[in-house]
Amino acid sequence: MKKFVLAIFMAVCVSGMHAQTKDVDTVNINVEAPSEELSDSTGATDSNSSKKAKIEKKTSKDNLEEMASLLRQFNAIAMANQQEKTDYSKIYFPVEGKGKFWRRHHIVQQMALSLMGGGDNDSDEDDGSPVSNLSDEDYTNQQEKYDGKPNFGFSVDLSFLFIPGVIEGDNLRINKFGAGYSLGLVAAFDKQEHYGVSCDFLLKLGAETGYAHKMGIGMDLLFGTGKSGGMSYDVPDNLKDDDDIYAESYSSWCLKYGTQLWVRSSLLSSGINNTNVRLFIRYVYSKNPNPETERYEGGTTINNWMEESWQVGIELCYEF
Q1: pTM, entire model
Q2: Strands (DSSP E) along 212-274, which ranges?
Q3: Per-residue model confidence as pLDDT tens digits over 154-170
Q4: 3-state SS class at 164
Q5: How far apart are CA 211 and CA 46, in angstroms?
Q6: CA–CA separation, 34 and 10 (whole Å)
Q7: Exposure pattern of 150-188 as b/e (b: 16+ CB <10 Å)?
Q8: How far is residue 294's CA from residue 134's CA, in Å, rounded to a whole number?
Q9: E strand or H helix that includes residue 23
Q10: What letter would DSSP give residue 210?
């Protein structure tokens, strides 16, 4: 019981242990002889006093050694617990499925909802496109009214995550890096002030590390189709000022591909079981399905297609 109490005391007050150790000089233990023996002679009394002093000195020394020993034990237990928490080479899951592939992988279904914001731009705008080559200052001012506006939206992800491991008995021990790969789908929708609503329907092939760890990171390759927007400008041959330019937004279905990078940390938590919170950045390139310029009687139509889309957002991922 004495050791148990001292161990609890040191766990709670370990920061003050050194100060307390310095303050301990002696531990008074009263050892009294029976009254008959004490009354026998003065020599007997002196002998008992000497024994009492020796016992006090020995007890004080033993107490300090015992406390130091308990402190070492406490530190050893704390280190063992810490090592056990960070020993990612011993994470087990039940073996499921049939066949070698399914039995040697921990398979997780994930559904994620995210909010995002970003912007679209014409990647050829600075590379000699008809828009950049148009020298009329009024037209440039007209174009700036529509370009560079932010967009906001949301996306839904559904994926299957495969974490390889080694079978040990009835359990699967996953690799210590928590590395795996995933297959899935992404459906994203966003709205821009002038282009309206655009959408992406993309297949996702990803790789990640840090599953069941305090921190994880992953990258996904995206490929599919969707609807993106642009602005068309009807520019008369006899242009005098920007009031003569007719601007109109349009959208078209097109081929899309891109990538996204995400990171997860235990510092971000939703408080919901089987969920984690991620931060991501996504890049999608939309192939232009329209010609850059088209002639009409008395002028030229310039299609300013928004080829590149950047999105950043926060994602709530649920595993089941």
Answers
A1: 0.67
A2: 215-236, 246-265
A3: 999 999 999 999 999 88
A4: strand
A5: 73
A6: 38
A7: ebebebebebebebebeeeeeebbbbeebbbebebebeb
A8: 14
A9: helix 17-23
A10: -
